[in-house]
Amino acid sequence: MNTETEYITPVEVIDYVTEPVVRVEHVTKEFVTGGNRFRALDDVSLEIHRGEMVAIMGPSGSGKSTLMTILGLLDVPTSGSYWLDGQDVSKLDRVQQARVRNQKLGFVFQNFNLLPRLTALKNVELPLVYGRVGAREREERARQALEAVGLGTKLHNRPNELSGGQKQRVAIARALVGNPSMVLADEPTGALDTRTGAEIMALFRELNREQGITIVIVTHDPEIGKQMDRVIGLRDGRIADNILQEYYHVNLALEELELPVREMAPVPVPVLKPEQE
Amino acid sequence: MFKEFVLMAIDSLRANKFRSLLTMLGIIIGSATLVAVLSLGNTLQSQVFERFVDLGTRRIAVLPGDPQARGARDVPGYGLLSIQDYRALEQLVARHPDVFRTIAPEVSLRVQARSGSSFANTTIVGTTKEYQFIQTVPVQYGRFLTDEDDRQAARVAVLGALVAEDLFGKENVKNAVGRTIEVNGQPLQVVGVLRQLGGPFSSDQRILVPVSTARLRIAGSQDLPGRGLQMSSILLSLQSEQEVARGEALVRATLRATRNVPEGAIDDFRLNLPTQALSVLAGINGAITGFIALVAGISLVVGGIGIMNIMLVAVTERTREIGVRKALGATDGDVLSQFVLEAVAISVAGSLLGVGGAIGLVVLVGVAAGLSVSISWVAVALALIFACAIGVGFGYYPARRAALLLPIEALRYE
């Protein structure tokens, strides 16, 4: 094996270290509902670096979903700046936003959002269709992406023929197929049972470790938060420190509460049957 | 890319087959009407008019020249037609079977006809068997004149319906065949009675006899000096309406030569051309075609509105799908194209079904009625182009609504 290719040149190292994938500065997002202005994000600044696996956590209403939509260029901030891959993307028009979503971002949703009439392969090809990739290359890349998530045998199955975990794997393959700078996952285990959820998290971790893919997961689940390189906490639209610890304490408290409850569970009582004659 | 969108559009048609079919109904009917009417139009028109109305669209009538007309030469018997002219034209007809169908003379005389004590002041027309192929003279009882009658200058007559009524009484018309009438003192045997048609140009008030009979037995002094029997008019029928101009030129040249009309002098005869009848016919045909085209147009527009309606439903139903597509990088233009193409797919598919049905119908009618029919490919193209336009026109608004959805709102849509 030629070990020389294993080295990273200094320039790449500097680039790697200094240029974050995401740089958000003083981002504010306001919504107007019924004449009232509601500030979902209030002066949020953060950086996410290449190869990081980060959770965005916070209670519901904390603004984590809003932050996700802004990071995903599905919405624009009211004020502030957002650099993605060194490009200022906070002032793009709709077509440019679509292009950036297509080229630099991969989305994984809680409820999979696969198109039901398309096979797994066709679902995964979709971002490449919008990226104007030719049919043959498209199919080849989609096949590779599905093989990478362990679904090489389910290429031609429709979503309704797949289990929840398999659907989410298809969605992950779809997020990866365009070689994005970052994968954004919104509660990716929310619709899955614990074991399948753990498998999906393991897949994310594997993709992050082995392929260096930058992954941002929005979650309220502290168990997922604990597996992350870093947790960005949000509360009332602002960055909050120690959010995981808070969760952790709450959960510990809950667990302590549950223990005696569990012990008080009713014991089966033998039922009297009428005696046989 | 375009191919992808087309495949998507076809796929979404197949996803809702029954709904798509119902949506297409207006387009199907509109396209079918358009193609069927434009294909059958010409055939039906000529059939209808040939059977029910004789507008004389294929007839040239040669009439005597007017001695009072400007430029008329001052010669004895100026303008009168004779059997010489008829013979010359007869040869012309024989030489040009592609232009002319047949020819018949008309020797009209005012006469008094008598049967017993009944009188009728009427017109007797000497002609040949060919007359029935030029004029509308349907025989109700008995038969029409034959060549044999003409050769023998037979004492036979075919009576117009009103003449027969005058002579025999209304209730005895059906028994008129075989009876004898007297015209200018000459006995004639009734061999046929015509059906009553009504109108100023019908033969209801005429008696038809062989031209030879008219000349030899009735006309008496009708011969022109040195030119034979005088004729009231000569009728020529053409193979088709398209031959009017050619027929006219041939007839004119032949007559001028036969009648020795000097170069530069005006015609000493008149030609009654069917141009006016043709324009009436074209007018009627245009009105009918226009009306049916209007119906087809209305049903196409109604079909378009149906498509718009269903596309608006589809956009609402598929809001999430639109959100997903946008998240994956579909631009507004991509979404717009997708939905417009879907609308076009519905309308074109409907149009194809309609056109297919119309072609089937036209062929069926052709076989059933024994007509030679041809599909109007112009109408087919027109129907398809129209369907495309309707798909784009009525699909655009729903597609635009889809395209302008904000990705985040579309994704959150429940």
What is the CATH class of chain A?
Answer: Alpha Beta
Number of domains of chain B: 2
Basic shape of chain B: elongated
Strand content of chain A: 15-25%
Quantity of strands of chain A, as a count: 10
Class derived from helix and strand content of chain A? alpha/beta
* Helical amount of chain A: 25-40%
**Largest interface by residue count?**
A-B, 24 and 23 residues
How would you describe what is shown here?
- Chain A has nine helices and ten strands.
- The model of chain A is unreliable at 259-268 (pLDDT under 50).
- Chain A has 277 residues and is α/β, with parallel strands linked by helices.
- Chain A is globular.
- Chain A starts with 9 loop residues before the first helix and ends in a 14-residue tail after the last helix.
- Chain A has helices at residues 10-18, 64-71, 94-104, 120-130, 135-148, 164-176, 194-211, 222-226, 243-263, and strands at residues 22-33, 36-48, 53-57, 79-84, 87-88, 105-108, 182-186, 214-219, 230-235, 238-240.
- Chain B folds into two domains: 2-52 and 280-412, no CATH class; 59-273, no CATH class.
- Helices cover 54% and strands 18% of the residues of chain B.
- Chain B has twelve helices and 13 strands.
- In chain B, the strands form two sheets. Chain B has a six-stranded mixed barrel. In chain B, strands 2-11-10 form a three-stranded antiparallel sheet.
- In chain B, helix 3 (83-95) crosses helix 7 and helix 8 packs across helix 10.
- The radius of gyration of chain B is 34 Å and the shape is elongated.
- The model of chain B has no long low-confidence stretch (mean pLDDT 86).
- Chain A binds chain B through residues 69, 72, 74-75, 94-95, 98-99, 101-103, 107, 109, 113, 115, 117, 126-127, 129-132, 174, 178, and chain B through 1, 4, 11-12, 15, 320-321, 323-334, 406-408, 411.
